């Protein structure tokens, strides 16, 4: 019986910077999830106008039978579709109910809480750096007007969501609290006797959020946010905080060394 060939996947990342992590934690999350499953893909910049649900990242699934590619958006929904289609394994299938709750809590902390604090730091506190980096491919005259539109939209969205109603000092405390919480998780995970490093004897092996020998779905999110924090110059305060937690940097560096060897590694200093 002939083996069914895998579809070709293209990840649209928004940035035209092959061989590098990008500023978007969700792009990095998606790439990490594919690499944890050993799924090959190529990357393209893409366009918000073509993106399903109007956001980056999205993917194109090319069926080798020759049909038109299917575009899929939203990292959670992309992952679920690939699991349902049997292309990748559900990393959480063997978790206990308590571990499932922990995994969900870590993802929610980053995606539904910290993300908005980072958006404010990038688009409000460091607007020009963010604009010129995220819109580098757009001519400056057009970038000026599109950037102003983006700024107004972000400001309005953050005010409605609630993050825009806090002071700068309050946001700084909230961000630090989130990174401290993540650092606590990862410190315990690195010291777990069930970690891959402990079981394999490889001191450079990745360790995972839940302290198991295998990753869970939360690990793609955690690495995605850490990689974005370490490479994005539009969030200098976040970079300093993350680099102030050696365990966070160690976690990211080990995953980079195992799964992203051909990608440029972030600089050791800001």
What does this protein look like?
The protein has helices at residues 25-36, 75-84, 97-125, 127-134, 140-161, 168-190, 196-200, 217-231, 236-243, 246-259, and strands at residues 8-12, 42-44, 58-62, 70-73. The chain is an alpha+beta fold and 270 residues long. The chain folds into 2 domains: 8-84, Glutaredoxin (3-Layer(aba) Sandwich), CATH 3.40.30.10; 97-259, Glutathione S-transferase Yfyf (Class Pi), Chain A, domain 2 (Up-down Bundle). Helix 1 crosses helix 8 (217-231) and helix 3 (97-125) packs parallel to helix 8. The mean pLDDT is 93.
Would you tell me the overall average pLDDT?
93
Termini distance? 55 Å
Number of domains: 2
**Helices and strands, in N-to-C order?**
EHEEEHHHHHHHHH
Spatial extent as radius of gyration: 19 Å
Q: What is the name of the CATH topology of the largest domain?
A: Glutathione S-transferase Yfyf (Class Pi), Chain A, domain 2
Which strand order do you get reading across the main beta sheet?
A: 2-1-3-4
Bin the strand percentage: 5-15%
**Share of residues in helices:** 40-55%
Helical segment count: 10
The CATH architecture designation of the largest domain is Up-down Bundle
Biggest sheet descriptor:
4 strands, mixed
By CATH reckoning, the class of the largest domain would read: Mainly Alpha
Number of strands: 4
């Amino acid at each position: 019986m002939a083996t069914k060939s895998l579809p070709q996947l293209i990840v649209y990342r928004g940035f035209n910077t092959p061989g590098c992590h990008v500023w978007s934690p969700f792009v990095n999350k998606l790439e990490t999830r594919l690499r944890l499953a050993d799924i090959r893909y190529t990357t393209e910049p893409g366009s918000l106008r073509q993106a399903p649900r109007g956001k980056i990242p999205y993917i194109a699934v090319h069926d080798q039978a020759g049909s038109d590619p299917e575009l899929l958006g939203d990292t959670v929904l992309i992952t679920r579709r690939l699991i349902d289609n049997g292309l990748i394994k559900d990393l959480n299938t063997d978790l206990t109910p308590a571990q499932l709750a922990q995994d969900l809590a870590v993802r929610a902390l980053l995606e539904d809480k910290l993300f908005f604090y980072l958006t404010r730091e990038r688009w409000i506190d460091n607007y020009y750096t963010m604009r010129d980096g995220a819109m580098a491919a757009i001519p400056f005259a057009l970038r000026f007007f599109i950037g102003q539109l983006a700024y107004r939209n972000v400001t309005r969205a953050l005010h409605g969501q609630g993050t825009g109603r806090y002071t700068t000092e309050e946001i700084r405390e909230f961000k630090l609290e989130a990174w401290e919480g993540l650092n606590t998780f990862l410190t315990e995970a690195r010291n777990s006797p069930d970690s891959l490093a402990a079981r394999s004897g490889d001191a450079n092996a990745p360790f995972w959020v839940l302290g198991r020998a295998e990753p869970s779905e939360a690990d793609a999110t955690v690495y995605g946010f850490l990689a974005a924090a370490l490479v994005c110059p539009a969030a200098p305060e976040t970079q300093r905080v993350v680099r102030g937690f050696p365990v966070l940097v160690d976690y990211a560096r080990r995953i980079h060394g195992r799964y992203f060897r051909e990608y440029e590694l972030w600089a050791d200093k800001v």
